[in-house]
Amino acid sequence: MNILLVEDNDVDVLLFQRALRNAGTQSTVVRAKDGVEALEILNAQGADKQVLDPYVILLDINMPRMNGHEFLKELRASEDIPGSRVVVVTTSSDPKDIELAYGSYASGYVVKPSGTAEMTKVIDTLHNYWGVCEQPVRRCDQQTQ
Amino acid sequence: MKKLPFASGKISMLHIMIVMLSMVLTFSAWQFSKNQSESRIEQRFNASRDRIVGLIQDRMLKYEDALQAGVAAMESHEGNMTLDQWRVFATHLRIDEKYPGINGIGVIHFLSDQTLGAYLEQRRAERPGFEIFPPHEQDIYMPISFIEPEDINAAAVGLDVAHELNRRSAALASRDTGDAHISGPIVLVQDANATSGFLFYAPFYRGDLPGGAAERRERIIGVVYAPFVMRNLLGGLLAKDLRHTSISISDSGQKIYDEHSSVEERHDPAPMFTDTVNLDVYGRTWSLDIRSNLAFRNDNTYSQPTMILVGGLVIEALILSLLILMVRANRKAVAYADEVTKELRTEKQKLVRTNEELEQFAYAASHDLKTPIRGISGLTEMIKEDLEDYLSSPGANPEISMSLDLILDRVQRMNDLTTGIIEFSRIGVQAGDCGPLHLCELVASLTSDFKLKPHQIVLESPVNEICTDPVSLRRVIENLVGNSVKYHGSPDQLSIAITCRETPNSLEFSVKDNGPGIAPKFQRRIFEMFQTLRTGDAPESTGIGLAIVKKAIEVNGGQVRLESTPGNGTTFHFQWPKQAASLGPIEAGIAA
């Protein structure tokens, strides 16, 4: 599972990594501190390319410089980065945020759990989703479209 | 903005109609009163006119009586009285007292050339040097034989009235008709002022009363006569200062008496009334020109119509002023209302801004406050995980595990508090959408959420589905049920009854439990923020739940109250609108 984690909170990153470890899934994680950094990473080509295809983006909403919504808009507007799968993982349970996220074709919306135990459950769910999406990729793309 | 009829601040058609109607009423009242007054005044003038005409007629009749008395006296002496006899008669007649206005009473004899000599002889026997004058061409002599009182009439003794047409023709007419006659206008020889006068004749004859003109001419002896000065006659008639009219008298176009002179004290240059009466007086026709004088004007000037008009006009002016004042006041009120509306609009915009800021604050707070809390919680869990082997070993310090649990507990409480505050602050900021809420489903879900047995929550409601803001109502009932669960000493014994009753305007809810109840002194306090009846160590209680309940109910236009006696459970009552909260976010913000 190749993951681009767009998250500004270091503790949440730690928690996520711990949960990933607890879940025991094989995965590569690239972390971006905000939307701007995430776009830079996604646009990188050749030797600079860090995120392996296929990948899933785990996206926080509240971030400095470029927040999650702004990032999603840019991502959907970019022709160079087509068909990214995005799952929003945020503390906000505001219906507005949920509506905006799905409006920008997010694949899922998860309110951040408070402990590692619950976070591990989220990772498990995500892994299942990944399994559906990875094999075969094309079928999944057709479905999401 | 819709303009009201008055809001324009202008005089409307209604105003004009009111004033016009009032004006018409005033003028009608004035005209009516004026007509009545004029009619009354005219009646008075007519009475005054009739009175003076009547007086003249009466007076002339009285004078005729005096003359007829003379005639009777003469006839009683067979037409031949001596000067002394006449004097006795005249003295007894007391003309000064009884016939004011008469100048005297005398006798004129009708003579021909044949009888003249004997006559003169007889007269000269009484009055030596008696002469008839002036000479004239007529074949008849009519000398004044006697006139009493003689002192003021001396100039007339011996005057032959045949010398002048007016005197003569009246005397002859009297002779021929046998009736009393007056002459046309003359100037009496004895009147030093040479003013108008006339002579009044009554004939007497020899023997019995003659039948025709020829017989009368033959048997005529003379006439008893009285000279009159018009001035004296009218003066004696009625004192001028008692009259409301002045009079002038013309005979055949010649003015014989005139009070219409500007020198007269009561003369009215523009008399209110005038009238002309033609009066037949002993063979003459007097034309009486009667006019009202100043006394009449003074006594008959009525101010009532004028007062009505002036009073009416003053009332019009007042009504008009009042209308203008009303319109002005109205204009001011409208201007003030506009100003207030403008202020309100500004305030509303401010409130909208404030609400937006508040919403943003709540949003930011929900993230910014929760993030470190979640961090502490997550890190503590990680530490616990890392120390899992050590903590489960026999030599482990039990206080570490206890402390970590306490951190997690406090963090959980902190999280609940933050969630509660955010929830509280967001009530009413976002108006909930209207949607169906099934009470049965709500009760089932609460039973499950609070891990209760189905019989522990009983619903009594005639309606199941209600259209409302489902999130708000659920929040209220959930908090109340949550409270009952939280504060009940033994959850197995807990029993909750939720009832819903429909009234014309709202739904009346009650949530009743069999818990420990709330002492009266706490019943008001429990709705305030952070008020809890548990000790601070109890992690479940944030003291925000009932504050959220109260605010959510009030934002929806209802009221919450509770009935409780310690040991006997608590019942919360509240109203909920039938339709979803119609209050918009702004008003809800104000109410909050």
UniProtKB/TrEMBL annotation, chain A:
In terms of InterPro entries, this protein maps to: Sig_transdc_resp-reg_receiver, TCS_response_regulator
Signal peptide as annotated in the record:
none
Q: Which residues form the Response regulatory domain?
A: 2-127
Q: Write down which residues bear the modification named 4-aspartylphosphate.
A: D60
Gene Ontology BP annotations: phosphorelay signal transduction system
Keywords per UniProt: Phosphoprotein
Q: Which domain of life is it from?
A: Bacteria
Identify the PROSITE patterns for this entry. Answer: RESPONSE_REGULATORY
Q: What is this protein called?
A: Response regulator
From TrEMBL, chain B:
What sections of the protein cross the membrane?
12-32, 307-327
Q: Which UniProt keywords apply?
A: Kinase, Membrane, Transferase, Transmembrane, Transmembrane helix
Q: What class of enzyme is it?
A: transferase
Q: Which GO terms describe its biological process?
A: osmosensory signaling via phosphorelay pathway
Q: Which InterPro entries match?
A: BphY/WalK/GraS-like, CHASE_dom, HATPase_dom, His_kinase_dom, HisK_dim/P_dom
Q: Keyword Transmembrane on this protein?
A: yes
Enzyme Commission (EC) number: 2.7.13.3
Catalysed reactions listed for this entry: ATP + protein L-histidine = ADP + protein N-phospho-L-histidine
The Gene Ontology terms for molecular function here are: phosphorelay response regulator activity; phosphorelay sensor kinase activity; protein kinase activator activity
Q: Which PANTHER family match?
A: BACTERIOPHYTOCHROME, TWO-COMPONENT HISTIDINE KINASE
Q: What is this protein called?
A: histidine kinase
